[in-house]
Amino acid sequence: MLLREFLQCVCVAILLALPGCGRFGSSALVFVPPKLPACEGPLTSVHVRWNVEAQTSSPISIYVSSPEEPRKLWLIAAPKGEKDTGRWMHDGSTLTLRNAKGRVLAVRTLETASCAKSGS
Q1: Model confidence at 5: pLDDT above 50
Q2: Of 56, 59, 93, 99, whose Cβ has the fewest other Cβ atoms within 10 Å?
Q3: How far apart are CA 71 and CA 114, in angstroms?
Q4: Which of 35, 83, 110 lies closest to 74 in space, CA to CA?
Q5: What's phi and psi for 15, nearest 5 deg?
């Protein structure tokens, strides 16, 4: 079990390096916007698109978590879809897609982008 958790952490770390998209094999999880502009405040709504049809044909569970908050179920949905979150996403909010057996299919964490500086 520790090896499995370690490998999941390694996969998540690799995924976090990819801007805007979390992938596990042919699965995808995309945020629009891909990063939270820091000048827009601490909370935002994000449009989420996912496609894990290559992994499962059964409904999937999408969980939200962050370093400060435990994992909570956000949505049970078809393996391909899209939906807007509420204005509760913030820097560090992570969405995790899991199949009916709890296997992680895709992970994506919202990060903050710096604001563009106005020229003077």
Answers
A1: no
A2: 59
A3: 27
A4: 83
A5: -65, -35
